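Changelog entry: the Signal peptidase complex catalytic subunit SEC11 record was regenerated in this release. Current contents:
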Amino acid sequence: MNLRQILTNSLNVLMMLFGVFMSYKAWGLYTNCESPLVVVLSESMEPAFARGDILFLSNPKKPIEIGEICVFKIPGRDIPIVHRVIDRHDSPKAGKQVLLTKGDNNNVDDRGLYQELHRNRAMMWIEPKDVVGRVQGFLPYLGMFTIYMTDYPLLKGLLLAGVGLVVFLYE
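Regenerated structure tokens:
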């Protein structure tokens, strides 16, 4: 294989990767959601969602309703949480809404998690600004690939090496 073929194959792979990345970002703009796809990492939402399910998110401008499943982030934590809204309070004068969430498979609500939002004061609710997106649909178990790649870094390395080998040896 000559240098020209290697460079051509490398550029083709880079164009494919950039195309996927740009499509993901465009989908995020369309859904008004910074992360339009997330993978469920725990069993806290069973039986609604199992570990490894891929969730499709959007973030419509309408108020969040009780019963909706939301993905929210706690500042200082990298991993978002997928739980159901079980209570909400609206303040029409202030135009503010606060939410209480709970995992379907959990015994208690998420107030213990909210304490991490503000360590110096009791936090009983989250706000819509903490919500990354609302679940619109899901694909069961297809996210297990992502979980395996995170849990087993050697598997990730072998897969990347295999893909690289195929790209450079393909004629």
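The radius of gyration is 20 Å.
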